Sequence to fold (378 residues):
Amino acid sequence: MRKDIILLLHIRLLLLFLLDFISLKRFDIVKEFLDKLGGILTPFVMGFAFAFLLRSPMRFIKHTLLKNLPVKEETKHFLAVVGAMIFGAICVTIFFLLLVPQLYDSVMTLYSNVRLYIDNFNHIMVDVMEKLNLDSALVIEYIQKYIPDAEKLSEIAFNTLSSLIPNVVTATINVASLTLNTLIALIVTVYFLLDIEGFKYQTKRAVYAFFENETAAYLVSVGRMSARIFNDFISGKIIDSIIIGILCYIGMTLFKMPYSLLISVIVGVTNVIPFFGPFIGAIPGAFIVLVSSPNQAIWFVLFILALQQFDGNILGPRILGDSIGLPAVWIMFAILISGGLFGLSGMLIGVPTFSVIYFLVKEKIDNNLSKKQNVIIE
Fold:
């Protein structure tokens, strides 16, 4: 217990020093240091993220497909890691060979028809204003003032491309850096998956070395719970979003809606974000359908609403179960806070992170109340 108190005292002193340092208007130095540190650790973070995503396929291969294979446990584990890496490579290959070319064609078609779509949008706005008995001339003037026409869009695109030309060297260096980081990340992924039990053992040893047995056991249990929540939530969300994207593509194809693949990818990717994801993906999709095929816009909105109801009430609960354990209001709170601090990635990891915090606080409250007598809470 004495060791724990001394360690906590050191941590508090360190935090006070950091807060004092930042308060002395040295935040820019701290931010620069953290940016450099983040750049150095990028391949390791990527590697651990890849390993986290491939851990479930690896365990499935090892404990299901290779369960009855008459080989040593080490050989079985090695084959499972190889199988998981092959599975990941197949997924990436399918994405780049099948989806990327079609997405590129959809984007180029959308860009080439931008003049037609702007005219369609202008006509729609004029019709709406006429039905509402508003002055259409003012609406047209407003549209022309704040919404650029096709020529201006082309000029903006040309100027943007021209400004990018001097940065070709910088872009090449960035691509080379990304390639190197990806290669290092893949190596880290393989090493982590091969020695995942060793990492667990080393972590436990460190925890038990620095804390008393009771505290260490509690921290280990919290770590297991956190890993389970993150694994169940992220893997479940990815599977759920892939299924929603596929269903969206099938439905839009059957109803002959335009840009079905492009919109389905947008809907599937944004669906990974809890709560707000369906709305984020539906807005650009509805706008694309509106300007390209106005008669189908309302049907697209109804289709997306039905799809999201199916996801929220049937598909999502069956895949995710009760992995989060958060009320809806706390999910919104976690997304807003983490999204505001860390962007889209924060929206994804904020919910399971807050779920762990919520569980720990709830457990502490329950323990404290159980120790008190004659406590009646209505």
User: Anything to note?
Assistant: The chain is about 85% helix and 0% strand.
